[in-house]
Please model this.
Amino acid sequence: MRLRAFALSAVVAAAPAGLRAQGSDALYTRLSGLSGFEYRGYSFDPGISVKSVSQWNLPLIVVAPLGRRMSVDVTTHVVSGRITTYAGTRQKLSGLSDTQLRLLYTVGRDRLVASLTLNLPTGKHSVSTSDFQVVGAVGSTYLSFPVSSYGTAFGATAGLAYARQLSGWNVGLSGALRFTGTYSPFTDQNVSYNPGWETRMRGGADRVIGRNGRLLLGLTFSTFSTDVYTGTGTLVGGTYDPGSRFIGDLAYVRVIGRGTLTFASWDYYRLVGHAGASAVPETKENVFNAELRFGRAVAPRLVVEPLIAFRQWSPADYRGGRFYSAGLGARYGVSDHLSVHFTGRLDTGWIYAAARGRADLTGTGLTLWLRYQR
Model:
């Protein structure tokens, strides 16, 4: 879940300073929590069958130390999605998402971190075929909804990460192996789905550039063993190879006067998947996203941050969509322990899918997070 990564970053932003101050090797050295409200919605002009799709969620994230070397974080959401079509149909799916419980053990002052993540199936892993329209819409890589999955089965991920300094760079390498159990995706069909194992590797590096800048680079590679599904209905017995994925990211942060300029970009590239021995060309895709922000303190506890962004989607071998965004963010420190984070944004662009049509789109986004740190 994309929200999990962004929100956890916000929760533990002050963790390294606290680590040194308290003499602890744990990744999280203070009890912290984040909650709030997030909304994302898109409307489409006539040209495709979908008229609008939207989602809101209430995140609940808690991180805490467990002794000198161990720490824990827990993430879940209350989430609701809705889709309407030009044919007049409306589908809504609401409930609790799955819950992720992660244990981290740190060795050598944050140099080596071992992790075990459990996916607890508190969400909706089985839905009707009509409600599955909502599940498919919020899982779109191009539209990038904050909570992209309502639920699967019990799962476990074991990971290991190592970091060190090398010739002026901070470099790191991590790897993880994930298992997900078998579940039935539909309540009204006799289908059983057994996801394959996922192997993920990531390399990252950052360094100071000049007196006021910092460059951050990263590359993630994921590969999957074969999924197996059995039963009759929308899916019949068979196998599916999802295709390997690559995610590259780059960020540059520079202090300019009393403000901070941040450029961040990522590129998601997925190889073609295979159903049995046959390739499924439409599963191949590339999504590129870039965002520019400038934050400036306008009051002792208030930082205002306007932003602009660009995203392009290229499924298979054609141009599938593009949109531009503009927005405004703000951070306000209510006290030494409580802060408020707000972002509002508007999008305009288009989407095209082969054999399905083309339509202009508009989007809106609203985020309000409350962060507490003891």
In short: Residues 2-373 form a domain with the Porin fold (CATH 2.40.160). The two ends are 26 Å apart (CA to CA). Residues 2-11 form the longest helix (10 residues). The helical segments are 2-11, 15-22, 132-138.
